[in-house]
């Protein structure tokens, strides 16, 4: 009996140790992810802070104007903290950024945080619609090209990918407006909504499709959807080029693996091999490509928003640059950069979970 009790005690101890190691193996990746995320955000804040100090624009002079007295100018420098050493200025900058206080926009006269809350949902809506189109079309083209390697389908997909990489997006946007809006009258004009609906739907979430749907006005929803289709399609073109090209390469790589040869020897069709065996194996790669494309759309929608007069953060940032609005430039840059970092971090977590699921 004493020996049995000792064995049971030892077994319980081993079980507890295994559980502790299992919990630690789950916590460590999260800790490493959080640490990497925090360091990246710190680096982003450092870069944006350096922009303010290396820029020829004087924030105090912008605040008081060119004709202000020297005493007024010096008082503005004190209020902005520009009289403090650079490390203290950086700490103050980080503190205000974490609190969401980016100052007042010189262009709009509104708090930058309020402007971002108004414009960023429009960019998210445009980029989300674009990545849905780009992912669906890009994956389909990439798989079709890999399954029909060397045929006219493969050549066409490769041409589309090359064209999507090469064509300037602003030129493509202007061409689409000329063709579908000015000539064929199939698409509505620039903006997010016609004037008749622009002031009749109360903005609740900032997303035009959601707000018009919640309003119960079918005409307003159709109008918002019609305005979204053309700019989202133009923005999606570059994304689908990248997604189709990398999907084709990943599928072709897997087609040369031994498990594919074994499946073919057993009589499995190419379609079954691709959709049942290959796609689950490259799901991590595809997730990474789509997520990075989405992040690039969020930060790269500036030209599309400018061409289509889309009131997103890209157009807001462009206006701020032309007017030298440093608070708006820094606030928008920091938000877009933080979104990019967050998407990258979430992608890493998603890929890690997919890889862990495969091992099980």
Would you give an account of this structure?
The protein is mainly alpha-helical and 360 residues long. The longest helix has 53 residues, at 2-54. The protein contains 16 helices and no strands. It has helices at 2-54, 59-64, 70-80, 86-98, 112-147, 152-166, 169-183, 195-198, 208-215, 218-255, 258-265, 270-281, 283-299, 302-307, 313-323, 326-359. It folds into two domains: 2-98; 112-359, MetI-like (MetI-like fold, Orthogonal Bundle), CATH 1.10.3720.
Q: Provide the CATH superfamily of the largest domain.
A: MetI-like
Uncertain segments are none
Helix percent reads over 70%
Major sheet: size, sense and barrel closure? none
